[in-house]
Amino acid sequence: MSKSQHNEYLKVWEKRQEIAEAMVPIIGKIYRSSGVVLKIYGRTLINASPITLLKLHRYVRQFEKTELAIQDSFEILTALQHMKLGPVRIDLGLLAVQYKEDERKLSIDDFLTDKLAEHIRDIKKQIEAEPTDVVLYGFGRIGRLLARLLIERTGSGNKMRLRAIVVRKGGDNDLQKRASLLRRDSVHGSFKGTIKVDEENNTILANGNLIQVIYASHPKEIDYTKFGIKDALIVDNTGIRRDEAQLSEHFLAKGAAKTLLTAPGKDVKNIVYGVNTDDISPSDKVISAASCTTNAITPTLKAINDEYGIIKGHVETVHSYTNDQNLIDNYHKGERRGRAAALNMVITETGAAKAVSKALPELEGKLTGNAIRVPTPNVSMAILNLSLKKETDKKSLNSFLREIALHSPMREQIDFTTSTEIVSTDLVGARKACTIDSKATIASGDSCVLYLWYDNEFGYSCQVIRVMQKMAGLDFPSLPIKE
Fold this sequence. Notes:
By secondary structure, the protein is an alpha/beta fold. It has three domains: 3-125, no CATH class; 130-263, NAD(P)-binding Rossmann-like Domain (Rossmann fold); 292-456, Dihydrodipicolinate Reductase, domain 2. It is 33% helix and 24% strand. The chain is built from 14 helices and 20 strands. The protein has helices at 3-34, 50-61, 70-80, 92-101, 108-115, 117-121, 123-128, 141-151, 174-183, 244-247, 292-307, 352-359, 394-407, 458-471, and strands at 36-40, 43-44, 88-91, 132-137, 160-167, 195-198, 203-206, 209-215, 232-236, 256-261, 269-270, 286-288, 310-320, 346-348, 367-374, 380-393, 414-417, 434-437, 442-454, 478-479. The strands form three sheets. Strands 6-7-8-5-4-9-10-12-11 form a nine-stranded mixed sheet. Strand 9 (232-236), helix 10 and strand 10 form a beta-alpha-beta unit. The protein is globular, with a radius of gyration of 23 Å.
């Protein structure tokens, strides 16, 4: 490469980086003021750095015939900031590509008005909606990640507010330790912001969010209204209560209105967001968000079943160890789980395959499942071995799955990669329920094997947040829809 060519490439890069830097404050402003969540092909732009924005544009160029240039998405973004919008998910990448391909040659303002017309008509109702108070009952791995996700949504456009955390007191310095675990995470990194502890009032102030820490061993001991909390959505992260009767104990606490379980539930609706979301009705008071593995596999199974039909299948999960296992060999009531988690691969059971039918009844009795716990702290893999009604091949199957990941209503749940080098740590912090590893796909005739990565902590937490929004009546549309 000549010196002049190098200088030209450098100028192009600097120009693109300058545009990305200009996009960041606009993205943040319309999110915090209006609740507009911007994405590029399902990948969130909230709190994204300029370099992340550039990488996301590069990601799209792998799949689309029309190149997504950052100048194009910047023009769309600039026009969006002048529109009167409310809580909505808008895919900037899809809008930019659709605008370039639109044969009507409309102005950007007219194009956006046309694409977002339905949302704009419904905007008043969403803007006037009162924020829902949220209480995290339990503050372990999922509880703390949910706290991070709720806190990052701070702003006048936010319609869910983290008001309290309920835990059992562990000692005199309990509050400091809870705050420290929120501040620093060995897997997910440092908290993005500031945290201040007020031990006198048992509160944590995180990025302007005042969070009351309540010590209790049972919901009947709690009066949320004492802290100004009313009609709260209680998110139970303890896993202790699993059926409707047990979860209804939360309503013994004054100020509680609804309960969401972050684990598989018995005799309650198990919701996998994006699959059976419409099963949630305003009258539902107790709901389960199912398990991380069920959330990871069900969207892809739905897509495959809708297109090819599934006769039968087996799901094998290669799952990171969890706090339920022993750090070193010791007694455990579960089979094999007493062996040292960080030293062994451990065969164990999983109910995820059977649980799929709770969200996708058409697969009742068609799936078996097993699990292997492995010595990694986060990010797991599900291997789907399926017998199909229609024949296919690797290229056709991957092409279909890529289309689902980029354009379908489940693009928030399913991601797609063509990388030959991706490994588990690359998926830490992934916000989608799963990522299809297309290079590992096996397909021949009427059978296929699919490999799905998933962040069993953070990706699942993002799914839980989506269910929470639906329960709170925040039915944010995802725009635009592919024509």
